[in-house]
Design brief:
Blueprint: E1 2-8, H1 17-24, E2 32-37, E3 41-47, E4 60-61, E5 67-75, H2 78-87, H3 97-108, E6 118-126, E7 131-136, E8 145-148, E9 153-156, H4 177-183, E10 196-198, E11 203-208, E12 213-217, H5 232-250, E13 257-260, H6 265-275, E14 282-287, H7 295-304, E15 309-314, H8 316-330, H9 338-349, E16 355-357, H10 362-366, H11 375-384, H12 387-399, H13 406-411, H14 416-419, H15 429-435, H16 445-448, H17 450-455, H18 461-471, H19 473-487, E17 492-494, H20 500-506, H21 511-514, H22 522-529, H23 534-537, H24 548-551, H25 555-564, H26 568-573, H27 576-587, H28 593-609, H29 616-622
Length: 626
């Protein structure tokens, strides 16, 4: 696991710029640093080594030295690809997966991507063709960004690497602020910086030096091959085999691998499979003196399967004091409250191991979110009640005071692309009109992501929800925070349930084997039940809970929020009176935790990345520590 960056050379960019850019992301690879420069480009690499520790340095070159690779990630089937390349006459000098990538690109060009299984982002410079090839893995586990303003072109594992390049014109992409307020992330290639773009999952770019940047999609998850003949028991058996094999692949390493462990079925299942291969230490997070702590579940399960578990504790001071630093490592304002827990969990884990398994992806691929259950009553309602009648009932309900069923009637007149809660996960359109200082920049978030639902418009609503989450929530939130919070601690997180073979099978599962009689991810639970204690396999999903909502009302933390909400940054972007109303409403007992956290973290993020536009008083306020 590593970090890399690079840029197309320009005369007025000092040659040591690449070193400064790579050092900015040193946390991604503290083990080694190497560089490549020629007349056209500069490339920098920071290594966190796992395989063939004495070799495999990067940048890595093709046999004729015309192609140069920098790579971040793990290729889990590299050994079989290497054997295929040997049969074609290619020679290998190391036992690292990066060498397979450069030889494979020599042999097949972009068609190499059809063969890969793993988590990866890599860039290859071809000096003959005068072009740069950059790619991101199927599901967006590993990040890749590029900056292209028509004059300068640069790329990197993290946006912050661009800060050290004098050609980077740092500007806020204000058009994306309402989208961020809706989703807590930006579900597109756009970022909060102008002219900085994400390479999307399953996508690659080709940048012609001195010319244009082309984007190509080499993979898109789909539900085109659902098999209605599959059964819960049959799918459970298949899942057992696939998860077992995936965990084995994700355990390949020349250094110790640990595992995150919550009280839920996903991480417990992954840990249990790993423990069958070799002893593995797990790490669990809890809160001091809090009902939200899951440590008793985690430690009991680890003990039951004979594995060591290390508990990690944090309190409110730990949480709030880290938030400005978290915004720096995130690159963009991500307001998922569980990210802080993941940071402290990763920090402690890194003391003992260099890589950790995690259970991300099970809910998205196997149907684990309770919100998916909403699909069934809404589909029945829309089937039996004509659209004009539903619209009329919704119009009447909107004018009436709150009553049981009012929300259902209002939402029942909306298409799924507007109704699905993740589309307005934090602030809905009307909320944004109230909270934004300039409401003219507000956007319809349902229209912004409607194209994703259109991709699967012929499918049932639950399938559309899952497809939406796999293409937005998973890469832009879940995997993003997992990468940033682990890598800022130089820890590699591996996700055996976000895997090409696992996903290929999940795409064949009919609804009846995903959800059955109100039970979510029923087939996965059945598979887990065969290996885990029943109380673990059937435990209710908690997510990653925290006491942050109650902490916000504690005087010392409440004061930080109040001061930030009246700061010059708040006054620049938001209606301060509305911010105050939201905070006071939360203090009075109505939970506005996610709304408060989204605004608060945006203010912190802006101050961290745009301090030149921020008053000294605001700098002091948002960086308060105990």
């Amino acid at each position: 696991m590593c970090g890399f960056t690079g840029y197309v050379n320009q005369k007025d960019v000092p040659s040591n710029t690449i070193v400064n850019m790579a050092n900015r992301i040193r946390h991604r690879g503290p083990d080694d640093e190497q560089y490549f420069q020629d007349d056209n480009i500069s490339m920098g690499f920071r290594r966190l080594s796992f395989l063939d520790l004495a070799h495999g340095g990067q940048p890595m070159f093709s046999e004729d030295n015309t192609k140069v690779l920098t790579f971040n990630g793990e290729i889990y089937n590299y050994e079989s690809i290497r054997e295929e390349l040997k049969q074609l006459g290619y020679k290998f000098y190391t036992d690292v997966d990066s060498e397979v990538l450069i030889r494979g690109y020599e042999a097949w060009g972009p068609d190499l991507l059809k063969k890969l299984r793993g988590m990866y982002a890599f860039v290859i410079y071809d000096s003959k063709k005068q072009e740069i090839f950059g790619v991101r893995d199927h599901f967006g586990i590993k990040p890749l960004y590029y900056y292209d303003d028509g004059d300068a072109f640069m790329w990197g594992s993290e946006i912050k690497a661009f800060l050290d390049n004098p050609k980077f014109n740092k500007q806020l992409n204000i058009d994306m602020l309402p989208i961020h307020l809706s989703f807590e992330f930006i579900p597109s290639r756009d970022t909060m910086f102008k002219n900085v773009y994400k390479v999307l999952p399953g996508q690659y770019f080709i940048h012609k030096i001195g010319g244009d940047t082309e984007l190509h999609r080499y993979f898109r998850f789909n539900y085109d091959h659902v098999d209605e003949n599959q059964t819960i028991d049959g799918d459970a058996k298949q899942i057992s085999k696939i998860v077992k094999e995936s965990v084995e692949k994700h355990m390949i390493s020349d250094v110790p691998v640990g595992s995150f462990l919550s009280s839920g079925v996903d991480s417990s299942y992954v840990l249990n499979e790993a423990a069958k291969l070799k002893p593995i230490q797990s790490f669990s997070l809890g809160f001091k003196n809090s009902k939200y702590s899951e440590l008793s579940w985690s430690t009991e399960f680890a003990k039951e399967i004979g594995q060591k578990n290390t508990p990690v504790y944090i309190n409110g001071d730990d949480y709030f004091d880290f938030l400005p630093t978290m915004m720096y490592y995130m690159d963009e304002p991500l307001s998922n409250p569980s990210a802080v827990q993941l940071y402290y969990l990763s920090k402690r884990t890194r003391q003992d191991v260099k890589a950790a398994l995690s259970g991300e992806g099970a809910d998205e691929f196997f149907g684990g979110y309770n919100t998916y259950l909403e699909a069934f009553p809404f589909e029945r309602y829309q089937k039996w009640v004509p659209k004009p009648v539903r619209k009329g009932l919704a119009a009447v309900a909107e004018k009436m005071p709150r009553f049981h069923g009012r929300r259902f009637l209002i939402r029942g007149a909306q298409p799924l692309s507007e109704r699905y809660y993740r589309v307005n996960y934090v602030f809905n359109f009307d909320d944004r009109n109230k909270v934004l200082k300039d409401s003219s920049i507000n956007k319809d978030s349902g229209q912004f992501t409607k194209h994703i639902f259109d991709d699967v418009s012929g499918k049932d609503e639950m399938t559309q929800m899952q497809y939406f989450d796999i293409n937005t929530w998973l890469p832009f939130d879940i995997l993003h925070k997992a990468d940033r919070m682990s890598m800022c601690n130089s820890l590699e997180v591996r996700t055996p349930l976000v895997d090409k073979k696992v996903a290929d099978f999940a795409a064949t599962m009919p609804i009846k084997t995903r959800i059955h009689k109100g039970e979510t991810k029923v087939s996965l639970r059945r598979a887990a039940m065969a290996a885990l204690p029943e109380k673990v396999a059937n435990k209710e999903k908690l997510g990653f809970p925290s006491p942050i909502a109650s902490w916000m009302n504690m005087p010392k933390f409440h004061q930080r929020i109040e001061e930030a909400f009246t700061s010059d940054v708040a006054q620049r972007f938001f209606n301060v009176d509305e911010l105050q109303r939201i905070v006071h409403e939360h203090a009075s007992g109505k939970s506005n935790m996610q709304k408060i956290f989204t605004i608060y973290t945006f203010i912190l993020w802006y101050q961290v990345f745009f301090p030149e536009n921020t008053s000294a008083k605001t700098v002091e306020l948002v960086h308060k520590t105990k």
